[in-house]
Each structure stands twice: as C-alpha cells, then as structure tokens.
Amino acid sequence: MGRMHNPGKGISQSALPYRRQPPTWLKMSPDEIKDTCAKLAKKGLRPSQIGVILRDSHGVSQVRWVTGNKILRILKAKGLAPEIPEDLYSLIKTAVNIRKHMERNRKDMDSKFRLILVESRIHRLARYYKTKRMLPPTWKYESSTASAMVS
Q: How many angstroms separate the CA atoms of 124 and 116, rounded?
C-alpha cells in the first residue's frame, strides 16, 4: 500500500511469533497485567507507552495473548481510555511542534508545506473517526486550541 504524502510503498514490519499463548516463563497473571495497565493509564500514559513499559519492565511480550484483550479495550472497560485516538493525538502533537518551529523560523517554507500535509492528515483522520463514532460529530481541529489538547 502506498503512503499518503510519500512515494514509498514499503511493507517492512516486525513479525510476531506464530504461537499465540503466553510464554511459560511469564509469572504475571492477567488480572495483575490489567491492574498495571490501569495504574499506568492513571499516570497519563498512552496505550502504546503502556505496552512498551509492560514489554521492557515486566516481560509481557503481547498483552493480548495473556489477557485476551488489547490494552485499549482493557482501558475502555475501566473507563480510562483517552478521549481522542492515539494516532490522531500524535499527529496533533506533530502539528503543534511544527507551529512552534514556524514561530521561531518564519522563512522556513519547507516546514510550512509539511504543516499543511500534517494538518490535512489530521482532517482526514478526524473525518474517519467521526464516521466510526470515536469522536463526537461536533469535534473540530483548530490550530489555536491544539496546544491545549496535546499538553
């Protein structure tokens, strides 16, 4: 599949092991993992950050294999899911950083062009999430309020 604002057609990605059972050496129970996910989410971490911490610090390779649910589903069940989806959040964060850069470097036309591309990606993703009802229909991206959304 081609990229949106890139000529690349790469399909490179990491491959997961075929066995979908949790490893035999894993000592954490599914309830412990769910509690750890909830505790980390209360600290303000995003689902992907929670997965990295569980992998690196607790030795949980795939939360889904141990608990039967993905991290985001666990957080939704406990009412701790982020209000905007994570990919949209990271795009907004990128746009805010580019805007901050543009304030310091007014003549940087390349970053102005990249900002237009990032914001078009934000609008496209927001339109998708509105149709899937993951965002309210009145939600709108505005560059003036974006920095408050991210921080």
A: 12
Exposed, middle or buried: residue 4 (CB in 10 Å: 0-12, 13-18, 19+)? exposed
Phi and psi, residue 58, nearest 5°: -110, -5
Cβ burial of 2 (10 Å; 0-12, 13-18, 19+) is exposed
pLDDT tens for each residue of 43-99? 999 999 999 999 999 999 999 999 999 999 999 999 999 999 999 999 999 999 999
- Nearest to 139, CA basis, from 87, 93, 78, 85: 85
**In terms of Cα–Cα distance, which of 39, 37, 57, 58 is closest to 48?**
37
Contact criterion met (CB below 8 Å) for 50 and 84: no
Claim: this prediction has a pTM higher than 0.85 = yes
Structure tokens at 106: 């007014």
Q: Is the dihedral of CA 65, 71, 73, 76 positive or negative?
A: positive
